[in-house]
Amino acid sequence: MTEQVQKIAKVQTPFKRLCSQFAESPVALVGLVVLLAVIFVAVFAPLISPQNPYDLSKLDLMDARLAPGETGLGGQHYLLGTDGQGRDMVSAIFYGLRVSLYVGLTSGIIALVIGSVLGVLAAHLGGRFEQIIMRIVDIQLGFPAILVALVLLAVLGKGVDKIIIALVSVQWAYYARTARSAALVERGKEYVEAARSLGLKGSRIVLRHLLPNAMAPLIVVGTVQVAHAIALEATLSFLGLGLPATEPSLGLLISNGYEYLLSGKYWISVYPGIALLITILAINLVGDQLRDILNPRLSR
Amino acid sequence: MTAFVIRRLAQAVFVLFITSILVFGGLYLVGDPIEILVHPEADQIERERARVALGLDKPLVEQYLTFLKGAVTGNLGKSFVYARPALDVIFERMPATMELAVLAMLISIVLGIPLGLYAGLRPNSFISRSIMTGSIVCFSLPTFWVGLLLILLFAVTLGWLPSTGRGPTEEIFGLQLSIFSLEGLRYALLPALNLALLKLALIIRLTRAQTREQSLLDYIKFARAKGLRSSRVIGVHLLKNILIPLVTVIGLELGSVIAYAIVTETIFAWPGMGKLVIDSIFQLDRPIVVAYLLVVVCMYIIINLVVDILYSLLDPRVRISEQHG
After folding, report:
1. Is the pLDDT of residue A193 over 90?
2. Measured between alpha carbons, how far is A271 from A250 in angstroms, rounded to an integer?
3. Running DSSP on this structure, what letter comes out for residue A96?
4. FRET pair for B316, CA 20 to 30 Å: which of A159, B11, B160, B179?
5. Residues of B whose CB is below 8 A from A251
6. Total-model pTM
7. Contact B76, B87 (CB under 8 A)
8. How far is CA B152 from CA B144, B189, B198, B267, in A?
9. B172 pairs with which residues across the strands?
10. Which chain B residues touch A234 with a CB distance below 8 Å?
11. Which helix (H) or strand (E) holds B275?
12. The dihedral of CA B297, B299, B301, B307: what is its sign?
């Protein structure tokens, strides 16, 4: 008996198996490391930035538009140069990452919750409710995300909360569609039938049985969607429709550098763009690998 | 088939109606256009006069009903800024956007299908792996930032191509088009390339997936067993079958290219309807914004419908059933 227990205990937990499968792709592993580094920088930006870029008293206009590597009047070394107001680009990018990641993750999580609950409910309840929800999803997904977001922001105006609302409205439909199709598959399986014949309440079946088992595809969609959300927010901010100038994300930094680009002062736009690209690329690489290992059709 | 088209058109009218209410009602809540339109030193009486002249003194519902009455007869109101019918202003800008979108689609098709085919036929070669990694990078690139890089490289550093604006236009079939002259193409190349990048990645990945799937099927094996030349098997048998899903996706993506042209046009100062709508949002020129959205939604619905019908014509296995849609 004890021997048997020990034998079972040696079997890998699903989480460990996931980790070892994930590590099979070196590219994805690099993506994960980069992503963790980006998150670290974003979380601890106030501690590791050389300068607080939004404390106007710390800025010196005499240091404006210095090229990367130059030294300011006060003796500060600007690794990536300064922008039009003498702001250190390294610090601006760290703070910008913070805003971009915050907006992307928050809107992603809210959309995930709303979308997956509605999707699973649609699969569980069926009937009129399912028809209405899925029709809205179909119509909305028929239009490009940027158009829907643009309309909402034209109406709502600027602000962190406004752009989160716009991004959630754009994204919930993807989660709803995925959650519904995953739940439809799960619903037909024996364990749900077992739960039902045990006489469990509908809410318990939805929350404790269907939702956890529909989670794998939702996580995959989630990683891709967070990358999309970050890119979309940057695009909208670039167009001047997203965040206010007091909370500049990477998109706004790139937009601020646009006017200096034609005179060859490339660093104000280019470096925030590289930061944005690295973030999105890292998320996509991780997402790609997650999709491969969580997809039962490709399982080895 | 007829029932399908009618149902889709009915749905289209419904979507248009909802869009108009949302946008019209929403924009009404945002700022007062009079503040922007009237000279800052204008007194109260002048402001009131302007308000009455634009019909902004009436309650929201009445304004909407006036709009709706006009909309049914094809009149979407007069632009506050241009003082001309909003639809005219938009149609004037539409050829610029359309030529950019078509050129971008062409670039991504001409580059994407051969690259995808290659990656699909030799999935394990080094070049195929590079193509696929490249497409992930392409997918992750923020479009607007790539636009800036293109300007920086080809216009500022190398000086080969103009950075912004549209080349000289000439009238072709009654439309003012610029891409049929060499000078016009020079202006259009960078924005079109920028717009093409995102779709390029999509077309490569789709072509590759289709190629891999189809090349394992019996009809390909049979064609090879018959002793047909490889070029014929790929160029005729395989290509024919992978084109069906591609046509659908390319059709649907044309709509999204038109929408994303908003970003590209803003970067390259391309005078299309995307740039127009961004300017109009900032100038609170409501009629233009409302009209633009309705026009784009209309185009979208038409494109989707045409693609659906085309799909059923191309692939005899797919029949549009009466229940569908």
Report:
1. no
2. 9
3. H
4. B11
5. 142, 144
6. 0.81
7. yes
8. 13, 14, 19, 12
9. B175
10. 142, 144-145
11. helix B273-282
12. negative
